[in-house]
Each structure stands twice: as C-alpha cells, then as structure tokens.
C-alpha cells in the first residue's frame, strides 16, 4: 500500500465521510433496482406481494448496508479479508452436509433469519483475499511460478467445491473472477496466453469424456450444452426455457407490449419470470428501448466503479474494487447471454433485478466494499 507521506493524502475522518461516498453510483444502483421492483410488480398481476414487497424491503436493508460498510475504513476490511475467505470457504464446504435444497439443488444454508447461498459469498471472500495477497506480495514476485501457484490453489479450492455441489456455472464464474484478479494484479501475460491456448484441448477432453466411466460433467450438464447448441432438440423439456425466452424477446419489439401486457410472462409461458428470466420479461413489456435502458445503467455502474479503481492509489482498495466490478459484470453478462441463447442456461440471477435475498445482500455487501475503497482511497495532495 502506498503510504500517505509519499505525496498522497486520505480524506477527513468522521461523519464528514458520508459526503465522499460515490453518490452517482448509489443513484445508479437505486435506478437499476427500480426496474426490478417494476417488473416484479408486473409478474405479480399488479400486486406488491409475493415478489415486489419483500424485494423492496431487502433492497432498503441492503442500501443501508452499503452506506455502513462504505463508512468503515478500508484497512478494517483489509485486516479481515483472510478471515472472510476462510469463513466463506468453510460455509461452502458445509453445504453438502447441512445445506437445504431449493429448486432441486442443495446450495443453501439456513440461518433462520435468512437463507444464504455460500457460493455467492465465496466470490466476495475470494476477491478480498486475493486483493490482500497481491497488496502484500512484492511486485518482483508476482510472476514467479511459486507465487503464481499459491493464488491458483486459493481460486481452485472453492471452484471445485462449488462445481461438486453441483453448480458448474457458479464454479466457472469463481474461476473466471479469480483469474481476472491475477490479471489485474499484473501477473505476466504469458501465463494467460498459455492458459487460453490450452482451452481447446480442455474443452475437447471434457466433451470426449461424455458417456465414459470417467466423464467430468454430469449428464444434465451435457444436455444443457446440447440444448444451447440446438434448443429444438427438446422443445418441451430442457429446451423449453430458452425457446419461450426467445419468443418473449422477439415479441417485445422496439417499444414492448406495454406494462403488464406481456403474453409470455403474464400467461406463465415463461418459467422463472421473476428470477433467472426476468430480463426477458422486461424486454417483452418495455421492448428494446427498455432493455437498453437497463444495460446503459449497468454500463455506467461498471464505468464509475472502474474509474474509482483506476484512480485509487491504495493497491488493496484498487484491486478489491476491480475484482468486485468484474464480479458484477459477470453477473449480468452471463444472465443476459443465457436468456438470449448466447450461453447455456445456468442459475445466475440478474443483479438488482431478479427476486432473491441471498444474491441481493451479497451484491450490496460488494457495493459497500467498493464505497469503502472509494471513500478511503489515497489521492494526490492538492
């Protein structure tokens, strides 16, 4: 970390820090959430229950959480990053033994007050720990093989645990976020070139193992890939979701069918229209312009967060902000790609929009950490 006596300064302490929160970012977060409240109200036939009211309450709590976390000094989060990673890793490991089942998958822990999905929490824990690791590591050691293997192990352990739940989509996202953190930290580019060059061999091996005693993926994973390549193979089965999603997207046109006028979503042809496929509901009712409006808000959230990371002279805070921004980008890009048929169907929610408590709270914690990094970042002396 760059010290304050080398031409940099920190902001004043105390209550005045609230004025240095990234308020434009907070307003964008609120704007995106309002899209979600509107759609959840629509798919509930014009009622706040059962989806919109709980989502508004969760968001209100989460918004307060952003401000509280943002006002806590970034050094506190730096000191606790190792403990956060270990605790979230333990929670992931406990899921097969004490986890509860929902939607046919055992991925949640019941804390009585809230049901949490540890695979979401580990993303934040991983980013925090890697930011701490590369803040501590001397620049000359970043690309040494030994010091590259250590973060790879840190990344692979939670990825393998999550994939074994099984949750292949989230496991791959954890791996992707971790690799991106290594890139942001300045690890030699050749490692990434070699890794990308080996990907075709890895994909071929995964596909070739299908039907063998040593196949790497579950049978339903292969069926999802088959459906992604050709949804017409099983239009009333595993291909039903994406087929109905494409119909809804196309029927929205430029301006949409109108608020609460979507046929696919309102008549329940579209499954999970309040969770994973909520973007399709938005596009059907508000059309291309409505969908682009949300994407523009997402784009500005990524832009403001990226600017905050680039201008931050505190290395831990910069890496933390960069990693959490990548996590947010991965959330919405994978979800939107999935509902458009550009990626296989996986259980990734649309951030700030999809109904759900666990994903919402974890996302708010992430934005709180971004705010803490922003408020307490080191700046050039004026």
Describe the protein's topology:
Elements: E1 8-9, H1 23-43, H2 52-71, H3 74-98, E2 100-102, E3 105-110, E4 115-116, H4 118-136, H5 145-163, H6 168-185, H7 189-208, H8 219-229, H9 240-252, H10 263-266, H11 278-311, H12 315-339, H13 357-375, E5 379-380
Antiparallel strand pairs: 1-5, 2-3, 3-4
Number of strands: 5
Portion of residues in beta strands equals under 5%
Nearest-angstrom radius of gyration? Answer: 21 Å
The helix fraction, in percent, is 55-70%
Helix count, DSSP H or I runs of 4 or more residues: 13
Largest sheet: 3 strands, antiparallel
> Runs with pLDDT <50, length 5+?
1-5
Strand order of the largest sheet: 2-3-4
What would you say this structure looks like, in words?
- There is one protein chain.
- By secondary structure, the protein is mainly alpha-helical.
- The protein is 65% helix and 4% strand.
- It contains 13 helices and five strands.
- The strands form two sheets. The chain has a three-stranded antiparallel sheet, with helices on both faces. A two-stranded antiparallel sheet has the order 1-5.
- Helix 2 (52-71) packs parallel to helix 13, helix 4 runs antiparallel to helix 12 and helix 12 runs antiparallel to helix 13 (357-375).
- The radius of gyration is 21 Å and the shape is globular.
- The two termini are 20 Å apart.
């Amino acid at each position: 970390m760059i010290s304050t006596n080398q031409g940099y300064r920190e902001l004043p302490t105390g209550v005045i820090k609230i004025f240095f929160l990234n308020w434009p970012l907070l307003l964008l977060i609120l704007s995106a959430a309002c899209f979600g409240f509107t759609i959840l109200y629509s798919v509930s036939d014009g009622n706040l229950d059962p989806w919109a009211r709980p989502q508004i309450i969760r968001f209100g709590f989460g918004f307060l959480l952003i401000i509280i976390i943002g006002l806590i000094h970034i050094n506190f989060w730096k000191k606790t990053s190792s403990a956060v990673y270990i605790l979230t890793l333990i929670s992931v490991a406990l899921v097969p033994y004490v986890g509860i089942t929902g939607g046919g998958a055992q991925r949640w822990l019941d804390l009585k007050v809230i049901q949490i999905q540890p695979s979401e929490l580990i993303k934040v824990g991983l980013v925090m720990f890697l930011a701490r690791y590369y803040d501590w590591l001397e620049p000359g050691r970043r690309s040494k093989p030994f010091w590259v293997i250590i973060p790879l192990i840190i990344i692979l352990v939670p990825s393998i645990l999550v994939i074994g739940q099984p949750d292949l989509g989230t496991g791959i996202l954890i791996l992707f976020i971790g690799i991106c953190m290594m890139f942001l930290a300045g690890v030699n580019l050749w490692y990434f070139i070699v890794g990308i060059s080996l990907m075709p061999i890895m994909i071929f091996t995964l596909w070739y193992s299908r039907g063998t005693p040593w196949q790497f993926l579950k049978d339903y994973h292969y069926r999802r890939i088959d459906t992604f390549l050709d949804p017409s193979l099983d239009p009333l089965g595993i291909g039903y979701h994406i087929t109905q999603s494409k119909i809804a997207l196309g029927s929205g046109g430029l301006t949409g069918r109108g608020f609460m006028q979507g046929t696919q979503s309102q008549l329940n042809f579209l499954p999970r229209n309040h969770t994973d496929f909520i973007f399709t509901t938005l596009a059907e009712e508000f059309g291309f312009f409505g969908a682009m409006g949300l994407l523009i808000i997402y784009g500005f959230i990524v832009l403001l967060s990226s600017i905050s990371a680039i201008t931050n002279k505190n290395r831990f805070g910069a890496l933390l902000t960069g990693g959490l921004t990548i996590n947010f980008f991965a959330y919405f890009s994978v979800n939107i790609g999935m509902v458009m048929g550009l990626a296989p169907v996986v259980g990734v929610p649309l951030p700030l929009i999809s109904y759900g408590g666990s994903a919402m709270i974890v996302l708010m914690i992430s934005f709180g950490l971004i705010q803490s990094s922003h408020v307490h970042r080191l700046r050039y002396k004026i």
